[in-house]
From TrEMBL:
Signal peptide: none annotated. PANTHER family: METHYLTRANSFERASE (PTHR43542). It comes from Winogradskyella aquimaris. This is RsmD family RNA methyltransferase. Keywords: Methyltransferase, Transferase. One of its GO terms (biological process) is methylation. GO terms for molecular function: methyltransferase activity. InterPro entries: DNA_methylase_N6_adenine_CS, RNA_MeTrfase_RsmD, SAM-dependent_MTases_sf.
């Protein structure tokens, strides 16, 4: 994987082969950040990266100047890799080993952007728990955005607070925000 913009633009990060991950493709990541770049000043936001895996999304935010990044994954080797990489690159990323749903139930911090990249084979019931916990627990600030990455074969448009989706190859990003 590579960082596509910012201070570390072009930097390749090689994750151990044994990690149980599916990193967001460069094409999809670039498209996502083009959307976010029109809505946010990256140095002025807080980010929660759920099912963080290799930390791909967290590194991209850090490279663009975000100073408040929390990466959550339940796999020890993933959080260890994120912590090690963040320290080596002097990036402000806190890696937390936790079940994502338990983290969302117990978190008190509000975020500007919450990005979730759960396993593509999640049931719709598991997918639906993410926005429910985020909005019930008021984890997004007033302008906040929840983004869930999923397969193009999964439809999340019936979930509460759904706004819209964007498709990039086999990937989809579904966006959720406060009801207007």
């Amino acid at each position: 994987m590579r960082i596509i913009s910012g201070t570390y633009k072009g930097r390749k990060i090689v994750a151990p082969a044994k990690l149980p991950v599916r990193p967001t493709t460069d094409m999809a990541k670039e498209a996502l950040f083009n959307i976010l770049n029109n809505q946010y000043y990256f140095d002025d936001i807080s980010v929660l990266d759920l099912f963080a895996g290799t930390g791909n999304i967290s590194y991209e935010f850090a490279s663009r100047g975000t100073e408040d990044i929390t990466a959550v994954d339940d796999h020890y080797q993933c959080t260890k890799f994120i912590s090690h990489t963040a320290k080596a690159l002097e990036m402000p990323i806190r890696a937390i080993k936790s079940d994502v749903f338990k983290f969302l139930e117990n978190s008190k911090q509000q975020y500007s952007i919450i990005f979730a990249d759960p396993p593509y084979n999640f049931s719709i019931d598991l997918f639906s728990k993410i926005p429910k916990l985020v909005f019930d627990n008021k984890l997004l600030d007033d302008r906040g955005l929840l983004i869930i990455e999923h397969s193009k074969h999964t439809d999340l448009s019936d979930l509460s607070n759904y706004s819209h989706s964007k498709k990039y190859g086999g990937n989809m990003f579904s966006f959720f925000e406060h009801s207007q």
